[in-house]
Amino acid sequence: MTAIFATSGEIRNTGVVKNAETHLDAVPQHDGKTRRAVARLLLEQGPVTAAAVAEELGISPTAVRRHIDALLADGEAITRDAPRQTQRGRGRPAKLFLLTDAGRARFGHAYDDLAVAAIRFLAQTGGEEAVRAFARSRVDALVDRHRSAIVAQVTPAERAKALAAALTREGYASSARNVGVGEQLCQHHCPVAHVAAEFPQLCETETETFANLLGTHVQRLATIARGHAVCTTHIPNVQRIPDDGGEPA
């Protein structure tokens, strides 16, 4: 939750104390920073309810809805109904909110049209393998900075959490949680989503690198590049096989 604490810090830097909701709601000049904090929560935890965002940021649900309504009006957020099985009692289902591609753009993209043009040229001159080689080089450079911290972990859950923390530091707003039969790694932001939409090799080589890094087969379930809200990777609960071919750790 490091990124969330950073968001709270961002609010505190404006002179607003968390939980002082009346002050936050009453000072219009802080609207821009508060709206960015709301948008970041939708990025990192979406789909999420307005009430959950209000609780996390320590401001009133009314203030949160005002900011979410503005994001909706600007095409930076969308809404969907919460699954029925999560509802208690009767009545209208709770609304969940998440960012659109336009909303994610608030937090920057690592590549632009120039990058797409460059990879197109690479594909035309070097073919499929040249694109894959570039993709492998890129993701290897990304994870190598964190490799020792990740491989030092023993269990799949610990390795997944270490990988999520590393990806968050690289701008992917990631989290990991247990889903019973394994760990689910979620990347709530993809700085290269626009490029990966045209060149899925970036997603494919990323998945291969995760498998090699974690020492187990992983399965990519969804990607932002393919129109999903989150990039989701399933990591099964199996122990790493030692390099010497001995018994599992």
From TrEMBL:
Pfam families according to UniProt: HTH_20 (PF12840)
CDD domains reported for this sequence: HTH_ARSR
InterPro entries given in the database record: ArsR-like_HTH, Carb_Metab_HTH_regulators, WH-like_DNA-bd_sf, WH_DNA-bd_sf
Domain of life: Bacteria
PANTHER family assigned: HTH-TYPE TRANSCRIPTIONAL REGULATOR SRLR-RELATED, TRANSCRIPTIONAL REGULATORY PROTEIN-RELATED
Protein name from the UniProt record: Predicted transcriptional regulator, ArsR family
Phylogenetic lineage: Bacteria, Bacillati, Actinomycetota, Actinomycetes, Pseudonocardiales
